[in-house]
Automatic annotation (TrEMBL):
InterPro entries: CstA, CstA_N. It is a multi-pass membrane protein. GO terms for biological process: cellular response to starvation. GO terms for cellular component: plasma membrane. The gene is yjiY. Residues 4-144, 165-308 form the CstA N-terminal domain. The keyword Cell membrane applies. This is Inner membrane protein YjiY. Keywords: Cell membrane, Membrane, Transmembrane, Transmembrane helix. Signal peptide: none annotated. Belongs to the peptide transporter carbon starvation (CstA) (TC 2.A.114) family. It is found in: Cell membrane. The chain crosses the membrane at residues 75-98, 129-151, 163-182, 189-211, 231-249, 269-293, 319-341, 362-379, 391-411, 418-437, 443-466.
Length: 484
């Protein structure tokens, strides 16, 4: 139990200490008007209070990532918790801060525009395609996972079993939430959902403390790979646990709140702080996975039987009883639904930016949204496990690119760029190793894949410094597009 609270303490200390350092290096300008003020349109650019923006940001970025990912990561033992803590503080929260604040400085621009500003037009076009693909995968994952949770809940209590109905209901909600102004549904309901999520996460930990389950049933051995299938920690752990440590999906979501935040001084709380909040949720579910079952073989058996959804169902109903379990599951269901709708919303805005189609009129929002939802529905017919694996790699690759873009922004202004460059290098090695090793990639042997990953990291780093330094500008010159 002490280990769990130590990890929580480290995350909170990361916010107050390292988060402040990151903010100082970025250099906020509280006197500047944010896009919410200077570009208010009543649809996507809408000023909202800071607590509300934080809660919406938390729900936007969370999804099932900080729940399903840590449950699957628990198969590797307590080492997963180290990745959540240090990955969140030094990589994920830094990534989220820069993806949000660079969007604020670029009039609420989406991640492809930010990447294009810093890494060139080729990378911008790449990210336009890649980000939309990622968001479509996210949207589909966040349809199927809550549908599975709701279906398991009703099947267990009343014997009703029809996941297709839930898929249809969730898609219908996504269509509505994607089209209406952001303050009509998202702005009003998400703060309440966020409060429920936080309350139920704490309730589950209280339930674990009050139960006869020991914390960390296999002990705190950080040198052993507990995975029953003997899958290698490197690079799989760092792709399996994404949203609880670092996630490129967040770079697609942060611009939504960059369009609603009232002052740059709120950026550390909204962007860095929301990621710390997600890290705490991830720690809770990783701890539950490591403690509720006697060993990782038992955990793997439940996952094989019904994916991580069944783990959530068993843990929640066992620790909190029938009523409490239902509320906890509903709290978990909220996460993917409130990220799925904003995933489709972000995809609409990225496509709109690329095609230069204003989004104030409903007919133009429909023009982009209908084809997206048709494609999304067709993707739901694919096996969930396959979608999840491709989502994991695409997710971390997006984070890698965003971190390199942030490094370019810092380097050109003679700021301390290593806060983003080191995690960018790390994630480059992760992504290329995974691509070489994974069955959905090139399926090479592990040793060869590691060499490819490290070599790719070295090449990308050398190319980055050669190209960015050649275009270095004075720190006194504001060069970001749309800055004033």
């Amino acid at each position: 139990m002490l280990w769990f609270f130590l990890c929580i303490g480290l995350l909170l200390a990361g916010y107050f200490i390292y988060g402040k350092i990151v903010e100082k290096i970025f250099t906020i300008r509280p006197e500047r008007k944010t896009p919410a003020i200077s570009m208010a349109d009543g649809v996507d650019y809408v000023a909202m209070s800071t607590p509300k923006v934080w809660l919406i940001q938390l729900l936007n970025i969370a999804g099932v990532g900080p729940i399903f990912g840590p449950i699957l990561g628990a198969l590797y033992g307590p080492l997963a918790m180290l990745w959540i803590v240090f990955g969140c503080i030094f990589a994920g929260a830094v990534h989220d801060y820069f993806s949000g604040m660079l969007s604020v400085r670029a009039r609420g621009a989406s991640v492809p525009v930010i990447v294009g500003n810093e890494l060139g037009k080729t990378m911008k076009h790449f990210m336009n395609i890649f980000a939309v693909i990622l968001l479509m995968l996210v949207g589909v994952v966040f349809v199927l996972s809550p549908a599975g949770l709701l279906n398991n809940l009703l099947k267990d209590f009343i014997g009703w079993d029809n996941i297709g109905i839930w898929v249809g209901v969730i898609f219908a909600y996504y269509i509505l939430a994607t089209l209406v102004p952001i303050d009509k549904i998202i702005g009003r309901l998400y703060p309440l959902f966020g409060a429920l999520l936080l309350f139920m996460s704490v309730a589950l930990m209280v339930g674990l403390v009050m139960s006869d389950k020991p914390f960390y049933s296999q002990g705190l051995d950080f040198t052993t790979n507990f995975n029953p299938k003997d899958l290698p920690v490197w690079p799989l752990l760092f792709v399996t646990i994404a949203c609880g440590a670092i996630s490129g999906f967040h770079a697609t979501q942060s611009p939504l709140m960059a369009r609603c935040m009232q002052n740059e001084k709120n950026g550390r709380f909204v962007f860095y702080g929301a990621m710390i909040g997600e890290g705490i949720i991830a720690l809770i579910w990783c701890t539950l996975g490591l403690s509720f079952y006697e060993d990782t073989n038992a955990l793997q058996a439940v996952i094989d039987k019904g994916t991580a959804s069944l783990v959530v169902h068993e843990v929640s109903t066992s620790l909190l009883g029938t009523v409490g379990g239902i509320l906890a599951i509903l709290g978990v269901v909220i996460l993917p639904i409130t990220s799925g709708d904003t995933a489709f919303r972000s995809a609409r805005l990225i496509i709109a930016e690329f095609l230069d189609i204003p989004q104030q009129k409903m007919i133009k929002r429909l023009l982009l949204s209908v084809p997206m939802f048709i494609v999304g529905y067709l993707i739901t017919k694919t096996d969930f496990n396959i979608i999840w694996r491709y989502f994991g790699w695409a997710n971390q690759t997006t984070a890698m690119v965003m971190l390199w873009a942030a490094s370019a922004w810092l380097l050109r202004r003679d700021k301390f760029h290593w806060i983003t460059t080191l995690p960018a290098m790390f994630m480059t090695a992760v992504c290329f190793t995974y691509l070489a090793f994974a069955p959905e990639g090139f399926a090479l042997n592990w040793n060869t894949s590691v060499v490819i990953g490290l070599a790719s990291m070295a090449i990308v780093t050398i190319v980055f410094f050669a190209k960015v330094r050649s275009k270095s500008v004075s720190n006194n010159i504001e060069t970001e597009v749309f800055n004033e």
